[in-house]
Write a structure and sequence with these properties.
15 helices; alpha+beta
């Protein structure tokens, strides 16, 4: 048997539907694990050989699964294939047993999205109808107003400024134009208008370490995303109430929201939940939480001196837009404290903070929560299906060779 030729043929047969490079590599890995000389070649029916052959099973199958045939007879292999289940178990592909929950959840989301599109496709494809927009988007606009009202004062000011800049009433604009024209006529050499912009800067008393710098950048990222959302929501509200004309960007965003999808402009900035309602909730929740992170970072000693020292005040990674960047900032801080290159550090995480190395080798260490394990949940003594948030401690330590 020319196994290389067989593998090439199977890649053509099964790989025709695979368009992602990573998925193609996974397919090749599974094919090479199954279609091999040692696994599928019949051996002489000796006692030793039979014992060895009886242990041969397809990769991933449990010990209770039917072993591979001992002979090369076609009827034996046909009978073996007939015993294989119609549905592949996740273990066959090296996946956790509860991965089917994620598959079912993804299928349900796609089905709901398809049903929404079926129900709104005709309205979305038709010409702009103010009443249809009002009926479809009013619940979302109401939720937006409620969430904004609960946000910190600083965020409310940012949102109000972004909304007013995009959705300025037409009557007010006309009055402003008339006032500007009168001012020019009265004083041709003077300014016709003046733009007032509010700016904010970090407190001079805050630290400038990697962690504090990350908090500042993450806070700015959240504000920028909120401004973008506020501009869209303000534009939609102005169009629905008749205070502004319809623009191409507002129409594109509203069409996506009517179909239950996150606008492309939002998703390109941050890949959050697929539901617009959940996306808006998550954005405001994270942006609001980052105000507290920023407040801690401006206190003496910085963020890590005022939060994350124990399970009671653990830092919630679910409050960040980019938690991976926070761990990288923590790594830079550890390298600076230890005076070593970044490449000499590795991330060390334990379930009990007391098990982390003490002293210079693990500074700083921080307690975090909001961590979800893929495939399992660890409660301190045993694993269970991943469904709840866990607490764990993290720190960067020197790598021992």
């Amino acid at each position: 048997m020319d196994w290389q030729q067989l593998l090439g043929l199977l890649q053509v047969i099964y790989g025709g539907r695979v368009d992602a490079e990573h998925d193609a590599r996974v397919l090749v890995a599974h094919l090479k694990a199954i279609f091999t000389l040692d696994l599928l070649t019949a051996r002489p029916p000796t006692t030793t050989g039979r014992r060895q052959q009886q242990q041969q099973r397809l990769p991933g199958l449990s010990q209770t699964a039917t072993p591979l045939p001992l002979t090369g007879a076609k009827q034996d292999w046909q009978a073996y294939v007939a015993t294989l289940p119609d549905t592949d178990a996740p273990e066959v592909f090296g996946l956790p047993a509860n991965i089917e929950r994620a598959v079912a959840l993804g299928s349900s989301k796609r089905l709901l999205a398809a049903l929404r599109q079926m129900g709104t496709a005709q309205a979305a494809a038709a010409a702009f109808d103010r009443q249809v927009w009002a009926d479809q988007l009013q619940p979302l606009l109401k939720l937006w107003d409620q969430l904004v009202s609960t946000a910190p004062p600083g965020l409310r000011q940012v949102i109000a400024a972004a909304s007013s800049a995009v959705a300025r009433p037409a009557s007010a604009a006309a009055r402003a134009a008339a006032v500007a024209a009168a001012a020019v006529a009265a004083n041709p050499g003077g300014p016709a208008s003046r733009d007032v912009a509010a700016t904010s800067s970090a407190s001079a008393g805050g630290s400038d370490g990697p962690v504090e710098s990350f908090v500042g950048l993450e806070r700015q990222f959240g504000m920028a995303l909120l401004k973008q959302i506020a501009g869209v929501m303000g534009g939609i509200k102005a169009v629905v109430t008749g205070d502004a004309s319809l623009s191409a960007s507002v129409q594109a965003a509203a069409s996506a929201l009517i179909q239950g999808q996150v606008p492309t402009a939002w998703d390109s900035q941050w890949e959050g939940p697929s539901s617009p309602l959940d996306y808006i909730r998550s954005t405001i929740r994270r942006a609001s939480a980052l105000e507290a992170w920023h407040s801690f970072s401006q206190k003496p000693g910085g963020l890590l001196a005022n939060a994350g020292s124990g399970p009671q005040d653990a830092l919630d990674l679910g409050q960040l837009f980019r938690p991976g960047a926070f761990l990288n900032a923590l790594r830079q801080q550890a390298a600076r404290n230890a005076g070593v290159p970044l490449s000499d550090l590795k991330l060390c995480s334990v379930w009990q903070g007391g098990r982390l190395p003490k002293g210079r080798d693990c500074s700083p260490a921080v307690h975090v929560c909001g961590v979800i394990l893929q495939g399992a949940l660890f409660d301190g003594s045993s694993l269970s299906p991943a469904w709840q948030v866990c607490m764990r401690a993290k720190g960067w330590v020197l790598q021992q060779e």
